[in-house]
Specification:
The chain has 200 residues and is mostly beta strands. It has two helices and 14 strands. A hairpin with a 2-residue loop joins strand 10 and strand 11.
Length: 200
C-alpha cells in the first residue's frame, strides 16, 4: 500500500488525482502482486555408460533447463476519460467512489525451456547447439493497458454537457463503458529460437 508512485515522466501530466490529500491517494501499490511462484530447474541426465557407446554419444550430455512463472493479477486503476474533477488535467481522473488501483487484472503463467549440448572440436574449441522456447505452452496471458505508473483501464467517460432526466437537468454525467476490465492486450505468444555458438 502507498499513496502513489507517480513516475513523473518528463512532458506528461501527473497522475495523482488530489495532490493536496495523500489519504485520498492511499491504495494498493502499482507493484502489488499477492501471489507469485517462480521455479527454475536444470537437468543433465547421463543414462548410458561406456558399454553403450553409440547411445552414450547420441543421448548423453544434453542439458535441459527451464523457468516456470505464475502470478495473480496486478492492480488496475479505473481511469475516466475527460476531466471530471475540472483541474485541467484529463490524465488523473478515476472512477468516483474507488481508491487508486482498486481493481485486479488477469493472472499470468508462463513456462520457458532450453535444450542445449556442447560438442568438442579439438582440445580448445567447442560448438554449443541451443533450442529455446518462451511461453512454451502458448498460454494467452491477457492484460489491460500498462503505463509507466502501472496497469490502467478506462471505466467511464465524463461528459461535461447538460443532460435532462425526468424533467431534471444535470450539468454533467458519466457514461459507463461495458469494456471496463476486459483485457485489450496480451503478453507475447510462444517464441522459439535456435542458435549455434562457438566457444574457445
Amino acid at each position: 500500500m502507498d499513496d502513489g508512485q507517480d513516475a513523473l515522466v518528463a512532458g506528461r501530466p501527473a497522475t495523482v488525482q488530489n495532490s493536496y490529500s495523500a489519504s485520498s491517494e492511499y491504495g494498493r501499490s502499482s507493484t502489488d502482486q499477492r501471489q507469485r511462484f517462480a521455479l527454475s530447474w536444470i537437468a543433465e541426465p547421463k543414462p548410458f555408460h561406456a558399454e553403450h557407446r553409440v547411445l552414450k554419444d547420441l543421448l548423453n550430455d544434453w542439458k535441459f533447463s527451464g523457468v516456470v512463472t505464475c502470478g495473480s493479477g496486478r492492480p488496475v486503476n479505473a481511469r475516466i476519460l475527460g476531466d471530471a474533477n475540472r483541474d485541467g488535467n484529463s490524465d488523473n481522473d478515476r472512477l468516483p467512489g474507488y481508491r487508486r488501483n482498486s481493481f485486479t487484472g488477469p493472472d499470468y503463467a508462463s513456462t520457458d525451456m532450453r535444450i542445449s549440448r556442447q560438442l568438442p572440436i579439438g582440445d580448445r574449441w567447442r560448438i554449443e547447439m541451443l533450442a529455446e522456447s518462451f511461453n512454451l505452452f502458448n498460454r494467452n496471458n491477457k492484460r489491460v493497458d500498462i503505463s509507466d505508473d502501472g496497469f490502467t483501464n478506462t471505466a467511464a467517460q465524463f461528459v461535461a454537457l447538460d443532460k435532462t432526466v425526468n424533467n431534471r437537468t444535470y450539468p454533467a454525467y458519466y457514461s459507463r463503458l461495458t469494456s471496463f476490465l476486459s483485457p485489450n492486450n496480451s503478453y507475447a505468444p510462444r517464441q522459439v529460437q535456435l542458435a549455434v555458438r562457438l566457444l574457445y
